[in-house]
Write a structure and sequence with these properties.
CATH superfamily of the largest domain: Periplasmic binding protein-like II
Number of helices: 13
Shape: globular
Distance between the termini: 84 Å
Radius of gyration: 23 Å
Strand content: 15-25%
CATH architecture of the largest domain: 3-Layer(aba) Sandwich
Order of helices and strands: HEHEHEHEEHEHHEHEHEEHHEHH
């Protein structure tokens, strides 16, 4: 009797040591990853991580990049997630200044080019990059016997009146990237005059990329044949077309500093109770398996050079001839002022 009781008692102690009570079974831990609304990843890729670490990954989509950063900043003392993905070089300085990330020197950083590493303390680690450019609906211009715009200046001409839709830089990362393209191209003394000209030419502004591309862009049933999107959007149109295509239905304006290069980062949120899993997830996002999934899911390029790209993606990729450049320090110092001045000029 005593021996039987002792065995039961010892079993209970072992269960307690494992964090379990008699009658309970082990349950996977949960890792919460906060992202922007455009985040996408293959189910099979996530499942492989979950199986490897006996974890359930929960994605918390929190709006566009600006909204994501704002929410993370407001919750800095009580984080909403363990990891944040999607802050880019247009909002990076605010995320770092507000101290929302914990440093992590991932071993996979060694394979990644220094051009993508914008935080020397490794609080934000690069995952992908893409060029934000003007995209246009080829069919519209052919049907209307109109040449597509060749550069930013063309959009001020009368023949392009009412044809452009852009995203609000205060709420959208591609919108902010395009604003920075105009700052880089026209300079601080000239970019607002340019935007005043766009307003006079019946510019339309929406809050996010999804609305601009899938609601207002004429390729998807809207009335605007020019949209701010990515240099990788045309191959995406081919790869995910319902019926096979020989050529993409859209094209990109790449000349004369008309594009801005956007780099997206992942970081471990300060205060996470799952630091080990958070590190594992960051490593996973930088791994070849995840990186090769990125282009077909989010229109952007992997930063890991060991990842190979889909042949169609490479074939129809639009490479800017010369990218509009704005120093990261200038972005950090002037971003809010530029956005405020843009708002006064364009929306009021």
């Amino acid at each position: 009797m005593f021996k039987k009781f002792s065995l039961v008692f010892m079993g209970a102690l072992l269960l307690a040591a494992c964090g379990l009570l008699p009658g309970q079974t082990s349950e996977p831990r949960t890792l919460t990853v906060m992202t922007h609304d455009s985040f996408a990843v293959s189910e099979a890729v996530v499942a492989s991580f979950e199986a490897a670490y006996d974890v359930q990954v929960q994605f918390l989509k929190a709006g566009d990049t600006g909204s994501v950063v704002n929410k993370a900043v407001l919750a800095v003392d009580n984080p909403l997630a363990d990891v944040l993905y999607g802050v880019d070089n247009t909002f990076l300085s605010r995320a770092l200044e507000e101290g929302i990330f914990e440093p992590y020197d991932s071993p996979l950083l060694a394979a990644i080019s220094d051009q993508f590493k914008l935080d020397p303390e490794n609080r934000a680690l690069p995952v992908d990059y893409g060029d934000v450019c003007l995209n246009y609906d080829i069919a519209y211009f052919e049907e209307n016997d109109l040449a597509p715009p060749a550069n930013l200046e063309d959009l001020l001409e009368p023949e392009y009146e009412g044809l452009l839709v852009v995203e609000n830089p205060a709420t959208s990362s591609p919108g902010l990237a395009f604003l920075l393209a105009t700052v880089g191209h026209f300079g601080e003394d000239g970019y607002l005059d340019y935007w005043s000209g766009l307003v006079a030419n019946d510019l339309k502004v929406v809050n996010d990329w999804e609305t601009a591309y899938y609601t207002d862009f004429s390729r998807w049933g809207g009335t605007r044949p020019i949209v701010v999107s990515y240099g990788s959007s045309p191959p995406f149109e081919v790869i995910f077309a319902e019926e096979p295509m020989e050529q993409p239905p859209t094209a990109v304006v790449t000349a004369d500093e008309s594009c801005f290069r956007q780099i997206e980062f992942v970081g471990i949120l300060k205060g996470t109770e799952n630091r080990d899993l958070a590190e594992a997830w960051v490593d996973f996002m930088l791994s070849v398996e995840f990186q090769e999934d990125v282009p077909l899911q989010m229109y952007v390029f992997p930063v890991n050079p060991q990842a190979t790209l889909d042949e169609t993606f490479v074939k129809y990729l639009a490479i800017p001839e010369e990218i509009a450049s704005v120093d990261p320090a200038d972005i950090a110092a002037n971003r809010e002022a530029w956005i405020e001045a843009w708002t006064e000029t364009v929306l009021r």
